[in-house]
Specification:
Shape: globular
Mean pLDDT: 76
Order of helices and strands: HHHEHEEEHHHHHHHHHHE
Number of domains: 1
Radius of gyration: 30 Å
Strand content: 5-15%
Oligomer: single chain
Low-confidence stretches: 1-17, 48-55, 196-201, 257-261, 311-315
Strand order of the largest sheet: 2-4-3
Largest sheet: 3 strands, mixed
Number of helices: 14
Number of strands: 5
Distance between the termini: 107 Å
């Protein structure tokens, strides 16, 4: 007897019930072609992006620094400097507010150090150097031939030639115009074009460009080039660069502990390769950048400081 509700063994209903459920449909020839084209398109897109990053943007950066006058960088440099100070204030790195260090013997020592390094500077550079009180160990090159030095940097440098090497490195960034190169390589060339034709930047665009410069670490190529220039400047001055290599050892040692990591490490990646390069480079000289007394004066440069004056927009 056939169970109620069932059909007989030879009925078409039974064949339909007993057949296995169909699996997912195999891709049709058309779908496979679409997938192949998509993969090919993604590969080509990746290659195009790599070409832009590795070749086109660096070439654009090189063209920019050749044609953009240094004077066109001044407004952007002023903005970046102001935003840097504001960030330090907001993060509690300037507990005494904005204080510019101006202890006269320290300024004299700093002037002597720059006088030695100036022997290798291009004629069109008009440096603006400021030392500020801050719980922030760094020195930073900015657009418009500006260099900011923060007082905690002196805690990391136990030798005048180590400090001289750091400053010579920053001058290397100024000479190579790395802040402007970085903007172009990070896709902000349109802003530089506006600067070149004399159009002021402002508003959200101004803020975004400044933030790009603030948070960006220099590339390995930029760091190496700045080290090469630094050694050349120290050689012209006749200063021994051995202590500069020791400074890298200090940075690398502190890099092992995030809590103690110097701020300098974030914007100037220190590597053993950089330390080895400086250590194994040709001898740059025999002399000290400063005498013991001058070095002591320089380390005391923030014993006297003043609040900055409000300056006119075009200064």
């Amino acid at each position: 007897m056939t169970p109620t509700g069932s059909t007989g063994p030879h009925s078409s209903g039974s064949r339909a019930a007993d057949a296995p459920s169909p699996g997912p449909a195999a891709p049709t020839g058309s779908t496979g072609q679409v997938l192949k084209r998509l993969v090919l398109w993604l590969v080509l897109l990746g290659g195009f992006i790599a070409l832009i990053t590795a070749v086109i943007l660096p070439l654009a950066a090189e063209a920019t620094v050749r044609w953009l006058p240094r004077s066109a960088e001044i407004p952007l440099g002023r903005k970046v400097e102001g935003d840097t100070v504001k960030r330090l204030l907001d993060t509690g790195k300037m507990p005494n507010g904005i204080r510019i260090c101006n202890y006269p013997p320290g300024l004299a020592a700093l002037g002597k150090l720059f006088a030695g390094l100036n022997q290798g500077l291009p004629d069109d550079i008009n440096l603006r150097v400021t030392v500020m009180e801050a719980d922030f160990a760094n020195a930073m090159a900015m657009p418009g031939d500006r260099i900011l030095i923060f007082s905690k940097l002196f805690d990391l440098t136990d030798h005048p030639n180590a400090f001289a090497g750091v400053i010579a490195h920053e001058l290397g960034h100024v000479i190579a115009r790395d802040p402007i190169r970085a903007l172009v390589e990070r896709g902000s060339g349109t802003v530089l074009l506006r600067l070149l034709v004399g159009e002021k930047i402002g508003g959200r665009m101004d803020e975004l460009v400044s933030q790009k410069l603030l948070i960006a670490a220099n590339t390995r190529d930029m760091e190496h080039r700045a080290d090469v220039i630094a050694l050349d400047l120290m050689e012209r001055a006749g200063w021994d660069s051995t202590a500069f290599a020791g400074f890298f050892a200090t940075l690398l040692q502190k890099n092992g502990n995030d809590a103690d990591r110097p701020a300098l490490f974030a914007t100037h990646p220190a590597t053993k390769d950089r330390m080895d390069y400086v250590l194994n480079a040709r001898k740059t000289g025999e002399n000290l950048a400063l005498t013991d007394q001058e070095w002591a004066d320089l380390k005391s440069i923030c014993d006297q400081s003043v609040a900055p004056k409000i300056v006119a927009p075009d200064s």
